[in-house]
Amino acid sequence: MDSGEVIEHDRPPEYERLGGRALTSTLVSREVLPDCHPLGPCNKLILAPGLMVGTSAPCCNKLSIGAKSPLTYGIKESNVGGRTAYRMARLGIGAIIIEGTSDHPHPHVIILRSRKSQIERADDIVGLGNYDLHRKLQERYGPHAAILSIGPAGELRLGAACIISNDTDDHPGRAAGRGGLGAVMGAKGVKAIVIPHSRAEKNVKPANPEKFKELAHDFTEYVTKTRAAMTKWGTSVMVDIANGLQGLPTRNYRLGSFDGAERINAVALLKNIEERDGSSNVACTPGCPIRCSNIYNDPEKNYLTSSLEYETICMMGSNLGIDDLDIIARLDRASDDTGLDTIETGATLGLAMEVGLIEFGDGEAALKLIDEVKKGTIMGRAIGGGVVTFARIMGINRIPAVKGQSFPAYDPRTFKGMGVTFASSPMGADHTAGPVIQGRKGLDTQKEVALTDPTVQVEVSRDLQVLAAIIDQLGFCLFVGPTAKNLGRFADFINASYGWEITENDLLEMGRSLLRTERDFNRRAGISEAADSLPEWVRQEPSEPSGRVFDVDPDEIRNM
Amino acid sequence: MDSGEVIEHDRPPEYERLGGRALTSTLVSREVLPDCHPLGPCNKLILAPGLMVGTSAPCCNKLSIGAKSPLTYGIKESNVGGRTAYRMARLGIGAIIIEGTSDHPHPHVIILRSRKSQIERADDIVGLGNYDLHRKLQERYGPHAAILSIGPAGELRLGAACIISNDTDDHPGRAAGRGGLGAVMGAKGVKAIVIPHSRAEKNVKPANPEKFKELAHDFTEYVTKTRAAMTKWGTSVMVDIANGLQGLPTRNYRLGSFDGAERINAVALLKNIEERDGSSNVACTPGCPIRCSNIYNDPEKNYLTSSLEYETICMMGSNLGIDDLDIIARLDRASDDTGLDTIETGATLGLAMEVGLIEFGDGEAALKLIDEVKKGTIMGRAIGGGVVTFARIMGINRIPAVKGQSFPAYDPRTFKGMGVTFASSPMGADHTAGPVIQGRKGLDTQKEVALTDPTVQVEVSRDLQVLAAIIDQLGFCLFVGPTAKNLGRFADFINASYGWEITENDLLEMGRSLLRTERDFNRRAGISEAADSLPEWVRQEPSEPSGRVFDVDPDEIRNM
User: Fold this and answer.
1) What pTM, to 2 d.p., does this model score?
2) Does the CB of A408 have a partner CB in chain B at under 8 Å?
């Protein structure tokens, strides 16, 4: 970004087998000074499609985005759907590395093409929300351009800033949400990355087309069959599940169940969607058969927001004492437009309500605070800085965060394996890094165990972190199942695609090696294993009404 | 503080030889959960006079205050003059440990007496600035009561909040400034600690009174003779020295020399003091023969502030482009009243000026921002959060801080040994932890070396950190000289006082052992040696006009 140049390289042999999160994390580890400031010139923002992206395998078109995080000050990978990864792979682009920055960055747009990618100044888009921005960019670069962009929050370089992607219906509704990567993009002076629709796109050809076709067919059938509930209800099925387990973050994690749950659950959501001519079967990436996402219209049946997912419904619903889906949808829309992670922002608004800055349940007041972020006021910056920064300003010590990043929508006192993931993942508190939603012990046997049993969670979380690290390299969605029995399928896919001969054990080593790379970066960045812990209040304060505390052995977590 | 009880213990044998910083850091290390939140109930605020406090040795009445720091999240000791330590020692109180907290702390006053110390609720002092507070407390508890207190910044639990002590003239002008310890006191619900004047005070009797008397006489003579310039000019002598070396932090550390230096130097300060009937020979603790402090009157010869020291004159003067001592004195007064560390706050205001929130040189605007802290507005909280928190809100990556704490008034690109101290001290960026103002290499030979020579600074800083750690255990002021040749005197003092038989080598081991204890706590708190580094910009951006960068080998620092 210093020179405005785009330099193309062939993929060096040492990076040949790396895709997605493995590629972003390896590049961050090798090329980013571990103790650099995340918003300074030494950080790099790296985008890489997973190894299976662009193929006909189902649910495999995720884009990994990596950098040193301005929230955790450690390594970060956040992945997102949309069309970007699919299109990059079909243009033969293995990764993009955005380097440097200018002291006073102007908004730039990076236009990726098969040849002659370029960086353009575009002063007319400074400060735009993502909705206006995407409209403008589609006018300029053609319909169906794949767009990654930041809103005002990213331009302000705030810790809760995310990178927004348009979805397959061209709404700016999907996000590489966690870790403040939008602030890194903002610090690079990049407002948007656009890949126009192009005839240069080519189908990704597997080494063994026949075998691949057969695998894709079988896996599509498997996924379609086993994820039928997800297709019907979407991610919001988790509202009733978490509420039933008394682990649904409610009113700033004071409670584990929410008396308004039935007004924000999957049934309520689907009812609104259907009555208002929205859509409940939206694919977040091209070719996904699960199609768990949605388009949510307002009572007048006009588009209000898209990709209204469980995390948002909880963090901006029950966690704020808000039981009105229309308000939650408006908070989601405002967050997407401003370029704010709904998880980090929901947790921060929970603190704002706890200290009485606004009242629990007051959605209009919450909307006003998000508008303050868009305007760049000090109040807005305080909110947009994320939960730990906001807590510092307000003198709050009960903070739902690990390594600077807020808990997502699982109370670790009930979802104890998730708590282990929050504590120990190199990503900070991140459910996708090792999603212990069901307890399955033993990578081979996958024996069912209770979510709330403290004695087994370290093993369960460790295995799921490895499985997630594998899936994130391949570009698959986690919803295909981070399970041991899928390992064989993943290996088959890779071998049929690349002509390699890797085994399930090779895959496991790929996952473990990736986690080692990430942990090693964090160590060099000054984050030791002593930081692998949950805040003390989850061990001391019983969740209501379950009475549970987080009671997994802290030493076992640190030594996992 | 949970129970409101005061519990008295005899000093356990294992703590017998520990005083001051050795006692606070050992207690923090043993009793504070390393990964607790500094503002939560598991932290403890510990006050301990040094081993020599209360004796007739000169310059030895410093109080150490320790806790886990809400700025650095590591161990912290900050020491302060005033009468508290002296009076504690004369009442036979070896340490105070303040534990627990309530969720909604009300302002409490702890009254220390020889017997029946107690904790009182005092709702009428909530929110008071330190000036009004001290007036009120002196009315209530008698003149010449020793007072430690927090202002609104501490009540708001902000990272730049300090603990203020009244000086020997009863002005609330001295501060245990660094590390945000005022926020810890605020989190405990303690607004003030008062030791009324009492007839129960007894002279501290040395084991060998004759010997002690002789030592005290000789050391007083030595100190008086060698520190004559300090007595005449005070700490503000450093303005011309640092400016001459081109290492005076100026305009947010962009420059190392200040064109207004002669309007804020010691000559200018003394001229104002003398013309306005102030005082230039004020002792910060009872019985100090150096008397380097001052009382500064306004042009109408009314009291304006006291203890206007070099750090404040630089951080709120040259660092803000302000060359008017009256404005700087008002900023000092406002900071003392609000309970803000002038170093952390000056660095933060420097950032506020750099990003254009207010203009460089605009002292009235800076005063308004401090007033916002007093009012507790979001803007005030953002400023009072300290330099790193403010940077997060403003999206700033060029931050003059290490481990969360701002640089003090020495540019590490010129004061390179000081830079090593900032990087490696367990205290974060803190000049008192190893004050390399002169370069002396070799604990035995003390060979003079250049301040700017990068090859010798690790050794120089390491030795000075050990010497500072010794002085801080004894309760001496650093100005008696953190030099090898004083070690024998210190050993003699201790032996004559306690009847021990310790050697210079024992003293060195006491210093090293203390540093090990502190580093070990930090490791357990998640701060590894990888965090022992300066921000990248001091290595990359040449200081003007010297053109110097910080070029000490980073690995040598980490492995010191």
Assistant:
1) 0.97
2) no
